[in-house]
Amino acid sequence: KDSKNEHLHRLTSTLALVQKIDQVFLYATGQKKAESLKKFKVGNAPFYQFPALSLHLSKRPVIVFCDVDF
């Protein structure tokens, strides 16, 4: 491990890119993510409070892969 960053496998993008993407896949693991996935599914928080909601602006519905029920 060459970095002190604990999020080595995280990918970030701009809103403009999200709007151009044909298909978004969201991958989340662990029970700690269940509450965030619920918020993502409902989608009623402002983007500035929950930036992942911007993924809903992609051309097609987001496909979610996870190991917990939400």
Helix content: 10-25%
What does the average pLDDT come to? 87
Oligomer: single chain
Roughly how many Å is the radius of gyration?
13 Å
Largest sheet: spatial strand order: 1-2
Task: Let me know the largest β-sheet.
Answer: 2 strands, parallel
Low-pLDDT segments: none
What proportion strand? 5-15%
Give the SSE string.
HEHE
* Backbone structural class: alpha+beta
Number of helices: 2
Overall form: globular
Instruction: Tell me the total number of β-strands.
Output: 2
- Measure the end-to-end span: 32 Å
What does the model show?
The protein is α+β, with helices and mostly antiparallel strands and 70 residues long. The chain has helices spanning 15-20, 34-42, and strands spanning 25-28, 63-66. Strands 1-2 form a two-stranded parallel sheet. It is globular, with a radius of gyration of 13 Å. 1% of the residues are buried. The model has no long low-confidence stretch (mean pLDDT 87).
In short:
A two-stranded parallel ribbon has the order 1-2.
List keywords for this structure.
single chain, 70 residues, alpha+beta, 2 helices, globular
List the helices and strands and how they pair.
Layout: H1 15-20, E1 25-28, H2 34-42, E2 63-66
Parallel strand pairs: 1-2
